[in-house]
Amino acid sequence: MEPRVSPRISASLLLALLALFALDVLVDASVHDYAKEKFIPRGNAFVLNGGSEGLYASSLTTGGNIRSPASGNGDSFIRFEKITFRRPKEPSTSSKEDDTKYVQAIIFEVEDRETIGGSAYGGQRAICCTPDLAKLGACTQGRVIYRPSEHNPEWPQVLTVTFKGNDLVATLLPETVHITRTGMYNLYFIYCDPSLSGLVIEGKTIWKNPSGYLPGRMSPLLKFYGGISLAFVVLGIFWFLQYARFWREVLQLQNSITLVIALGMFETALWYFEYAEFNKTGVRPIGITIWAVTFGAVRRTVSRVIMLVVSMGFGVLRPTLGGLTSKVIMLGATFFLASEVLELVENAGTINDLSGKAILFLVLPVAVLDAFFILWIFTSLSKTLEKLQAKRLTAKLEMYRKFTNALCAAVIVSVGWICYEIYFKSTDVYNERWQNAWVIPAFWHGLSFSLLCIICALWAPSQNSTRYAYSDDGSEELDQEDTISLIKPAPLRSKDNWNLSSPDGKTALTIDPTPVEEGKRE
């Protein structure tokens, strides 16, 4: 049994340890493959992050004990398979045959992070046992310092591999660690002996939740994408029925909305199948992921471009965009490329290789382009509303006011949610609120779907669709009420008369519009 120490570890030490791979929560697989991964020096230890995932307690447990060792449905575990450690071919120093060096795999729940590490006499905290602590009998020199969890005395779980003498290879026997308590679990491979410098690891670990291989923070998204896919189908049925019913009255704008609905249906369906496959195998299906990301990027781009051109009055006040067409296309293409790259890196890339600065470098262009879209949309809307009001086109004006109100509400909600996201992530350094993390990506899908529903309600095909279309015959200059007031005949006054003269200047005919009484007519 491993010796343990009671000194508490400082928060800064564990923060440095966990911050090695703060982005590991965004893992791209529940099957973590290690292909000659190298260890990184941290303090007096050499550390490799093996994974960090939220895991739910096994549904096969009763009172904290596993009812069945089977790894079927309902079981939750971390399994080690073919884990091999390799030293450089020529060790830097020769060792005696009885000299033993240790590599340890330590699994702990994030709220038990203070159980790792310690110090002697209140000195500097360390991950590996120091000579001073070894003299106190608190731990074994050359091994990781840890003490039992207050919640479960059997945790943290520590697996040890030994190198004897100048051995170049050491193997960890297959091992399955069952999860009996819901929490965010971290796995680190650690060695303390500098003579093992250059050590690499091969093999894999498999992380499973009771419902499948999806990481705990992502598992609710499977049901969410199933639900929103169904919602898109319902919206699509409504829209296509209206489209088929009034196909003779369909405008170009309504064709664009049809495209957005179709893209949304494909995108959400692909995400559902991607998550279902991920949950089944533990590895993301890259082909489906790329298609889902691409459909999503196209949908977001088309949606923004449509809102921009509608805000400019295209198809309502103007037949073309004129010289602005190339600028709109350029902005849309740039946004598509930036969004596609960001989503591919986040969903299909190797997250572990990206630092915070690299992610920020990809997020900033998308954020700046989004802000530019919003600024341009509202500037154009302001001008369009002024024109509609000046021309007294009340029907179109009312429609644009509703559209403006919907956009304003969406922007206000978005800003509020961004503030919440910043608060959520800044106050959850160790990802302890992982069970609620799925709400963040789900919110943006829900908001965009809600805005699409509002646009569909405003521009749904109907027998009066053409009243909102641009017309060059001058009829759009005045509304029906104005037209009626102009063509209504005015009463003629009795003193009015018209004289029609002949070409020679003599009066040919005089018309006296004075009313003639019926009895005086000849």
Distance between the termini: 133 Å
> What's the overall average pLDDT, rounded?
79
Annotation, overall tally of beta strands:
14
Q: Which percent range fits the helix content?
A: 40-55%
CATH architecture of the largest domain: Up-down Bundle
Query: Major sheet: size, sense and barrel closure?
Result: 5 strands, antiparallel
Which series of helices and strands comes N to C? HEEEEEEEHEEEEEHHHHHHHHEE
Q: What's the CATH class label of the largest domain? A: Mainly Alpha
Poorly predicted regions: 1-28, 62-72, 350-355, 473-522
By oligomeric state, this entry counts as single chain
Radius of gyration: 36 Å
- CATH topology of the largest domain, by name, is Rhopdopsin 7-helix transmembrane proteins
How much of the polypeptide forms β-strand, as a percent range?
15-25%
Number of helices: 10
The secondary structure category is alpha+beta
Domains, number: 2
**What is the 3D form?**
elongated
Q: How is this fold's topology laid out?
A:
Blueprint: H1 11-18, E1 31-38, E2 40-42, E3 45-55, E4 61-62, E5 65-66, E6 77-86, E7 100-109, H2 131-135, E8 157-164, E9 169-172, E10 175-178, E11 183-191, E12 200-208, H3 219-245, H4 252-281, H5 286-311, H6 325-348, H7 356-390, H8 394-426, H9 439-458, H10 480-487, E13 498-501, E14 507-511
Antiparallel strand pairs: 1-12, 2-3, 3-11, 4-5, 6-9, 6-10, 6-12, 7-8, 7-11, 13-14
Helix pairs in contact: 3-4, 3-9, 4-5, 4-9, 5-6, 5-7, 6-7, 7-8, 8-9
Any overview of this molecule?
It comes from Spirodela intermedia. The chain is α+β, with helices and mostly antiparallel strands and 522 residues long. The protein has 2 domains: 161 residues, Jelly Rolls (Sandwich); 256 residues, Rhopdopsin 7-helix transmembrane proteins (Up-down Bundle), CATH 1.20.1070. It contains 10 helices and 14 strands. The strands form 4 sheets. Strands 1, 6, 9, 10 and 12 form a 5-stranded antiparallel sheet that branches. A 5-stranded antiparallel sheet has the order 2-3-11-7-8. Strands 4-5 form a two-stranded antiparallel ribbon. The longest helix is centred in the C-terminal third of the chain and has 35 residues. The chain is elongated. The N terminus and C terminus are likely disordered.
